[in-house]
Amino acid sequence: MLSKFINLFKFVWHHPLNDGNRLAAIWRVISWQLASKIIPGPIALPFVNGTYLLTTRGMNASTGNWYCGLQEYEDMSFVLHTLQPGDLFVDVGANIGSYSILAGACEGVKVIAFEPVPQTFSWLQKNIKINALENRIEAMNIGLAEQKGSLNFSSNLDSLNHVVLQEKHNTSVVKVDVSKLDDILDHKYPTVIKIDVEGYELQVLNGAKKILDNPSVIAVIVELNGARKKYGINDNEIHKLLLSKKFETFEYNPLKQQLISLNGKFNSVNNTLYLRKLNEVKQRISKKSTYILGSGKKI
């Protein structure tokens, strides 16, 4: 437990958005730890441009944004700086809705959010409702795969819930309907797709090949950190699939509004940005709007 808190304080202390005001960030950690023990029920934590995330103890996907402004600073900033009115953002593995609410806070942007675990999906719905974003965010309680059917998902691992092929001790499991993204998004054309399904990304992408062939998709955000091994899949399979769709790999520096090429490789620790139509992406970034984070910082 002690090492867990030490790692948390290190993460918050060194987070780029806390530079120059680290003590205030540490106080946010301490105040949350105290408040969450005293106040019964969920607490609405400030997020982006006047939005909130309803949070209870153990919701790391939410508290990280409160501590740091944006937990996944580079990729969340990329979403904010890239999306424009009329765009569709697809959030696969939405969890409680951090990325969905983030994209929904962008003017004129529509969101389709997929969260398979019913208990987590209820929190996604609550966050959409508390932010009055029902007309912008469509939430779907379904999983995505390479074919229609049903799969078992873990349900007690917070943001680490995933497809369970073989039941394990101490892992609660729920059966969920799954479908192909190609079938669900028929005649809908996303601009940015974020996929965070804890290792099941290749199956999701195999069910989205028609979508990926559509030139409307200029960015796919995906994490390749070896989590696919439990399904017998190598990260290179996903990498090669996206490269075959004419995507190139990048990281994003929000402070400089700069894309940094990974020279055909992928980030094995954090998310990788798979981008195409680079001139359009750069033009979008150069016209970025200013957003106010829950910490009070502007980006």
Model description:
With 299 residues, this protein is an alpha/beta fold. Helix content is 34%, strand content 20%. It has eleven helices and 13 strands. The chain has helices spanning 2-14, 22-38, 60-68, 73-82, 98-104, 118-130, 181-184, 201-206, 209-213, 235-244, 278-286, and strands spanning 43-46, 52-55, 88-92, 110-114, 137-140, 143-144, 149-154, 173-179, 192-195, 219-223, 248-253, 258-261, 271-275. The strands form three sheets. The chain has an eight-stranded mixed β-sheet. Strands 6-8-7 form a three-stranded mixed β-sheet. The longest helix is centred in the first third of the chain and has 17 residues, at 22-38.
Largest sheet, order of strands side by side?
Answer: 5-4-3-9-10-13-11-12
The helix content, as a percent range, equals 25-40%
Low-confidence stretches: none
Counted by DSSP, the helix tally is 11
Which structural category do the helix and sheet elements fall into?
Answer: alpha/beta
The helix-strand sequence is: HHEEHHEHEHEEEEHEHHEHEEEH
For the largest beta-sheet, the strand count, sense and barrel status come to: 8 strands, mixed
| CA-based shape | globular
> Averaging pLDDT over every residue, what do you get?
91
Number of strands: 13
In percent terms, what proportion of residues is strand? 15-25%
Spatial separation of the terminal alpha carbons:
33 Å
Radius of gyration: 18 Å
Write the layout of secondary structure elements.
Elements: H1 2-14, H2 22-38, E1 43-46, E2 52-55, H3 60-68, H4 73-82, E3 88-92, H5 98-104, E4 110-114, H6 118-130, E5 137-140, E6 143-144, E7 149-154, E8 173-179, H7 181-184, E9 192-195, H8 201-206, H9 209-213, E10 219-223, H10 235-244, E11 248-253, E12 258-261, E13 271-275, H11 278-286
Parallel strand pairs: 3-4, 3-9, 4-5, 6-8, 9-10
Antiparallel strand pairs: 1-2, 7-8, 10-13, 11-12, 11-13
Helix pairs in contact: 1-2, 2-3
